[in-house]
């Protein structure tokens, strides 16, 4: 390690929390837009970001009465940035809701499996949304046609007979990813493909092969 | 309410990302420091240069409060050199800029658009991830800050064509398993090529799905031993 590395390390540590959060939020947004399945809910990050957005909105509301042209321009900048942040958060949440709509039962199963762990799949409000959406949907199906079927055929999540009714996202779908730390050899299950992935490399690879690295922060989707 | 867009980023989302890149500006007016959500902005004191996110720099530029300093790689000289490299090596993109030293394992690693690929002291000999978007945006909003904007525009167009051709010829290398290396690809190029490249890989995978499943089952049954490749040969003959 030479002096440049040491300096750089000090610099990295001195990066303000806000900037690190912006990097994390941007990464989470891109990942959610690109990944075939729902990713764990970044709870502490979203808490920090949402609190900051709320404070900024209060600031804007306080300052709007100020007629001084200089303060006015500052306010324009602040509001422009606020809108950018709101877009990021909103697009992130909407991408998640889209996935919740597409595979509700699969996600619910995943969520109950992970609910005890530190990284739940869904935010509390998302869980609530999923449950009430699913309740409405099954009620509607039941009243419009399912009740006419024999009782044994009425289930929406039947897994007997070797075929599961629960729709799953395509976990082997190809994604573009960038490696953030050296992760060593990647093996694609069921094929001869194996390759070293080092920091900075960009690969097109199956989501299932690099999912773990994306979740641990060693790689990112682009 | 749910996002109706398919997987992948749209071009406008990519340029939204690109607007977070830091660029160097020479302010023409004073501006007090600001506490923004994405980190504080230092006070602007002309004629001292400062680094600002592109969206803010464009706003200041539009109001003639600042001039933007194009990054060194966005000069005719550098672009010509990179273009020569691109045409000479037909099988890979020109290498991306050198990465900053590896951060320690517990810090958050940064990646574009937060890697300083567009400030005045960026590397002059490599295209950063958001090269095309950044070049286009700067040429549109701040062409008077370039020495030779027409030439830069022409070279960018040339680079784009050479690189798109590479992306297309790369198709022959694609196969069902993926694992295709694409170092040096740009953000907009990922967005453009994504549907096609991933579509081809996914399609090929579905064709070969049953074979693969057979193999997976066998792997699980036998475990991955050393004689495993031989087995594969026997199966094929």
UniProtKB/TrEMBL annotation, chain A:
Record-annotated GINS subunit domain positions: 54-144
Keywords: DNA replication, Nucleus
UniProt source species: Massariosphaeria phaeospora
Gene Ontology, cellular component aspect: GINS complex
Signal peptide range: none
Protein location: Nucleus
The name this protein goes by in its record: DNA replication complex GINS protein SLD5
Entry's family note: Belongs to the GINS4/SLD5 family.
PANTHER family (UniProt xref): DNA REPLICATION COMPLEX GINS PROTEIN SLD5, SLD5 PROTEIN
Function: The GINS complex plays an essential role in the initiation of DNA replication.
UniProt domain DNA replication complex GINS protein SLD5 C-terminal: residue ranges: 169-222
Domain of life assignment: Eukaryota
Pfam families linked: Sld5 (PF05916), SLD5_C (PF16922)
Gene Ontology biological process terms in this record: DNA-templated DNA replication; double-strand break repair via break-induced replication
Main location: nucleus
Record SUPFAM superfamilies: GINS helical bundle-like, PriA/YqbF domain
Membrane-spanning intervals of the chain: none
Automatic annotation (TrEMBL), chain B:
Residue runs in coiled coils: none
DNA replication complex GINS protein PSF2 N-terminal domain residues: 10-69
Pfam families with a match to the protein in the record: PSF2_N, Sld5
GO terms of biological process kind: chromosome segregation; DNA replication; double-strand break repair via break-induced replication
Transmembrane segments: none
Gene Ontology, cellular component aspect: GINS complex
Bias (Basic and acidic residues) ranges: 213-223
SUPFAM superfamilies assigned to the protein according to its UniProt record, in alphabetical order: GINS helical bundle-like (SSF158573), PriA/YqbF domain (SSF160059)
Superkingdom, natural source: Eukaryota
InterPro entries for the chain: GINS_A (IPR021151), GINS_bundle-like_dom_sf (IPR036224), GINS_Psf2 (IPR007257), PSF2_N (IPR056784)
Keyword entries, A-Z: Chromosome partition, DNA replication, Nucleus
Acidic residues composition bias: residue spans: 227-237
Keyword check for Nucleus: yes
Subcellular location: Nucleus
Residues in GINS subunit domain copies: 73-207
Positions of region (Disordered): 208-237
Similarity-based family: Belongs to the GINS2/PSF2 family.
PANTHER family (alphabetical): DNA REPLICATION COMPLEX GINS PROTEIN PSF2
Subunit structure, interactors included: Component of the GINS complex.
Stated role: The GINS complex plays an essential role in the initiation of DNA replication. Has a role in chromosome segregation.
UniProt-recorded name of the protein: DNA replication complex GINS protein PSF2
């Amino acid at each position: 390690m030479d002096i440049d590395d040491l300096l750089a390390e000090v610099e990295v540590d001195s990066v303000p929390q806000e900037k690190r959060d912006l990097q994390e939020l941007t990464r989470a947004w891109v990942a959610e837009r690109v990944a075939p399945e729902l990713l764990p809910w970044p709870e502490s990050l979203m808490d920090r970001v949402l609190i900051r957005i709320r404070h900024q909105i209060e600031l804007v509301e306080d300052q709007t009465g100020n007629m001084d042209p200089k303060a006015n321009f500052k306010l324009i900048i602040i509001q422009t940035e606020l809108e950018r942040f709101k877009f990021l958060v909103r697009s992130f949440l909407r991408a998640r809701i889209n996935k919740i709509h597409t595979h509700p039962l699969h996600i619910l199963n995943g969520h109950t499996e992970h609910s005890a762990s530190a990284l739940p799949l869904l935010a509390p409000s998302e869980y609530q949304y999923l449950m009430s959406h699913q309740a409405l949907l099954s009620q509607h199906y039941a009243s419009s046609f399912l009740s006419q079927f024999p009782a044994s055929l009425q289930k929406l999540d039947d897994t007997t007979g070797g075929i599961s009714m629960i729709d799953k996202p395509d976990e082997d779908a190809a994604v573009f990813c960038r490696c953030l730390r050296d992760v060593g050899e990647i093996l694609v299950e069921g094929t001869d493909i194996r390759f070293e992935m080092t920091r900075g490399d960009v690969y097109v690879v199956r989501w299932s092969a690099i999912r773990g690295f994306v979740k641990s922060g060693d790689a990112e989707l682009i | 309410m749910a996002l109706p867009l398919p997987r992948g980023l749209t071009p406008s989302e990519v340029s939204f990302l690109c607007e977070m890149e830091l660029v160097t500006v020479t302010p023409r007016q004073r501006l007090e420091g600001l506490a923004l959500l994405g980190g504080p902005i230092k006070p602007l004191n002309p004629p001292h240069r400062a680094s600002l996110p592109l969206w803010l720099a464009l706003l200041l530029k539009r109001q003639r409060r600042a001039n933007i300093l194009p990054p060194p790689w966005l000069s005719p000289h550098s672009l010509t050199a990179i273009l020569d490299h691109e045409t000479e090596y037909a099988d890979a993109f020109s290498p991306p800029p050198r990465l900053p030293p590896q951060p320690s394992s517990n810090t958050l690693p940064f990646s574009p658009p937060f890697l300083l690929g567009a400030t005045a002291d960026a590397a002059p000999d490599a295209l950063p991830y958001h090269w095309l978007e950044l070049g286009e945006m700067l040429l549109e909003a701040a062409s008077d800050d370039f020495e030779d904007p027409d030439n830069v525009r022409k070279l960018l167009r040339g680079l784009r064509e050479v690189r798109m051709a590479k992306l297309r010829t790369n198709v022959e290398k694609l196969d069902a398993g993926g694992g295709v290396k694409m170092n040096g690809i740009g953000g907009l190029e990922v967005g453009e090529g994504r549907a096609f490249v991933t579509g081809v890989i996914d399609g090929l995978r579905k064709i070969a799905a049953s074979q693969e499943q057979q193999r997976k089952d066998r792997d699980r049954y036998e475990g991955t031993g050393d004689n495993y490749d031989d087995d594969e040969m026997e199966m094929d003959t």
